[in-house]
Specification:
The protein is an all-alpha fold. It folds into 2 domains: 188 residues, Growth Hormone, Chain: A; 245 residues, Growth Hormone, Chain: A, CATH 1.20.1250. It is built from 20 helices and no strands.
C-alpha cells in the first residue's frame, strides 16, 4: 500500500513537471512584445549616429541617396511580405521570425565596419524586414478573437515606447562616449534579440497546421503582393478609402525617411533636440491615439475624425514646408502628433463599413497600399529635394525660397485626400439577406447599396491579411 502510494505520488510529480515544462514553452504575447522591443530599441539607439554617417558617406545628394535607400528597402518589403506571411502559415512562425529579426538587424555592426556596406545591406534587408507581419501572425495564433485587438495594441504600444526612449538614450551616449559605443550597444541588443528568438521563443502555430515536409506548398496568388491592390476597383467605397490612404500615407512615409536628417542639417537641430523631438511627438501621439481618438469617435463620428486628422496633417506639412526656425518645427510636431489619429480612424471606418466576411480582404488592401507607399514615399521625397537643389553643405546649408518643398507637395496630396474622403459613406448600409451566390443576388446587393461587398473567389480571400511596418 505504501509502495503504491509512493508510486502514485511519483507519477503525479512527473505529470506536474511535464505540465510545468509545457507551460514554460507555451507561446505568449510577452514573447512577441520582447522581440519587437529589442529590435526597434536597437535601431532607435542609432538615430543620431545614422544621420552623421549618412551625411559623411554621401556628402553630395544626401537627401536623394537617403530616399533611394529607404525607398528600395520599403518596396522590397512590400514585395516580400505576402510571400513570407504565406510561408509562415505552413512552415511555422518561429523560423521566419528568426530570419526576419536576423536580417533586419544584420546591417547594424556595419555602420562602423563599412558605411557603404551598411547602407547596401539596409536596402537589401527590406526583403526580410517584415517582422511586424510575422509578429501579428504569431499573436493571432495564440489569442482569441475578442482579445486580439488588445494584444495588437500592446505590441504597437511597445514599438512606440521603444522609439520614444531609445533615440534620447543613443544621443546621450553618443555625446559622452562617441558613436562607436552606441553601435556596439545596439549590436549587442540585436544579438540578444536573435538569441531570445532562437532559444526562448516557442512555436505558436499548432503542429497540425504545419507541414511535416519541406516543399513549396503555396500558390503564386498567395505570394503576389499586387493581388490585394487589384481588388480595389471592385467597390466604390473601397476605392475611395484606398485612394484616401494612398494620398495621405505617401507623404507620411516620405517624411519618416528624411525628416530627422532635415531637422539636423537644415534647421540645425542638435542630436539631443532631435531625440527630444521624437520623444515629444511619440508621447503626444500615444495620448492622441488613445484618449483623444476615442472621444472624437464618440462625439463627431468616424468619418469626421478621419477628416480632422487629415486637416491636422495638412497644417503640419505646410508648417514643415515653410518653417525655418526651430520653434516652428516644435509647434508643427505637436500638430503632427494630432494627425496620428488618421489611420486608426480609417481602419475603424473600414471595419464599420465592411461586412463580417470581408474584414480581412479590405484591411489587406489598406495594408497593401501602405506597403507600396513605404517604397514610393522616401524615393519621392529624395527626388523632390534633389529637383529643388536642396543640398547639404558643411559650411552652410543652402536654403531655397521654400525650405521643405517635399512637404508642400505632400500637403497638396493630402488636400486631394480630403476631397476624396468627403465622399466616403460613414454609415453602414442594411445587412443583406442571406441568399445563394448567384448573379441575381449580387445585383440585389448592389441595388441595396451594401458597402464593401468585394467579391471573393478563394478561401484565402476571407483570411485576415497581415499588417506590415517598416523601420
Amino acid at each position: 500500500m505504501h509502495q503504491c502510494s509512493c508510486r502514485k505520488s511519483s507519477e503525479e510529480m512527473g505529470l506536474m513537471f511535464v505540465s510545468l515544462q509545457h507551460g514554460q514553452r507555451r507561446a505568449r504575447v510577452t514573447h512577441a512584445v520582447i522581440v519587437i522591443f529589442l529590435e526597434f530599441f536597437a535601431w532607435g539607439l542609432l538615430t543620431t549616429p545614422m544621420l552623421t554617417v549618412l551625411h559623411e558617406t554621401f556628402p553630395q545628394h544626401t537627401f536623394l541617396m537617403n530616399g533611394l535607400i529607404q525607398g528600395v528597402k520599403g518596396f522590397l518589403s512590400f514585395l516580400s511580405a505576402p510571400l513570407i506571411g504565406a510561408l509562415s502559415d505552413t512552415w511555422g512562425r518561429k523560423s521566419f521570425l528568426l530570419i526576419t529579426v536576423f536580417f533586419t538587424c544584420a546591417p547594424i555592426p556595419f555602420m562602423r565596419i563599412s558605411p557603404r556596406w551598411y547602407f547596401a545591406l539596409i536596402s537589401v534587408s527590406g526583403i526580410f524586414s517584415v517582422t511586424f507581419s510575422v509578429i501579428f501572425a504569431y499573436v493571432a495564433d495564440i489569442t482569441d478573437e475578442h482579445e486580439r485587438s488588445t494584444a495588437y495594441g500592446l505590441v504597437s504600444a511597445t514599438f512606440a515606447a521603444s522609439l520614444v526612449m531609445s533615440p534620447a538614450i543613443g544621443a546621450y551616449l553618443s555625446a559622452l562616449y562617441g558613436d562607436s559605443l552606441v553601435v556596439l550597444i545596439a549590436t549587442v541588443i540585436a544579438v540578444a534579440d536573435i538569441a531570445f528568438v532562437f532559444f526562448l521563443v516557442p512555436e505558436s502555430l499548432p503542429d497540425k497546421m504545419r507541414l511535416s515536409s519541406w516543399g513549396f506548398p503555396i500558390s503564386w496568388e498567395q505570394a503576389d503582393p499586387f493581388s490585394s491592390l487589384r481588388r480595389v476597383g471592385k467597390d466604390s467605397t473601397v476605392l475611395l478609402i484606398c485612394v484616401t490612404v494612398f494620398l495621405s500615407y505617401l507623404p507620411e512615409a516620405g517624411q519618416y525617411s528624411s525628416f530627422f536628417l532635415y531637422l539636423k542639417q537644415m534647421i540645425q537641430f542638435s542630436s539631443e533636440a532631435i531625440a527630444g523631438f521624437i520623444a515629444m511627438v511619440g508621447i503626444l501621439s500615444i495620448i492622441a491615439q488613445t484618449l483623444l481618438l476615442s472621444v472624437l469617435m464618440r462625439t463627431i463620428g468616424k468619418k469626421n475624425t478621419v477628416l480632422l486628422g487629415l486637416g491636422f496633417q495638412i497644417l503640419q506639412l505646410l508648417w514643415y514646408a515653410f518653417g525655418s526656425e526651430p520653434w516652428m518645427m516644435w509647434a508643427a510636431g505637436t500638430i503632427a502628433a494630432m494627425s496620428s489619429i488618421t489611420f486608426p480612424a480609417v481602419s475603424s471606418l473600414v471595419s464599420y463599413n465592411a461586412s463580417a466576411d470581408q474584414q480581412g480582404v479590405v484591411q489587406g488592401m489598406i495594408t497593401g497600399i501602405r506597403g507600396l507607399c513605404n517604397g514610393l514615399g522616401p524615393a519621392m521625397y529624395g527626388f523632390i529635394f534633389f529637383l529643388f537643389n536642396v543640398e547639404l553643405n558643411d559650411t552652410h546649408p543652402v536654403k531655397p525660397v521654400i525650405p521643405g518643398p517635399p512637404f508642400l507637395f505632400g500637403a497638396c496630396t493630402v488636400l486631394i485626400a480630403v476631397f476624396v474622403a468627403i465622399f466616403i459613406p460613414e454609415h453602414r448600409g442594411p445587412e443583406p439577406k442571406a441568399c445563394s451566390a448567384t448573379s441575381s443576388c449580387a445585383a440585389a446587393h448592389a441595388q441595396n447599396g451594401s458597402p464593401l461587398t468585394t467579391p471573393t473567389s478563394d478561401p484565402e480571400d476571407i483570411e485576415p491579411l497581415l499588417q506590415d511596418t517598416s523601420m
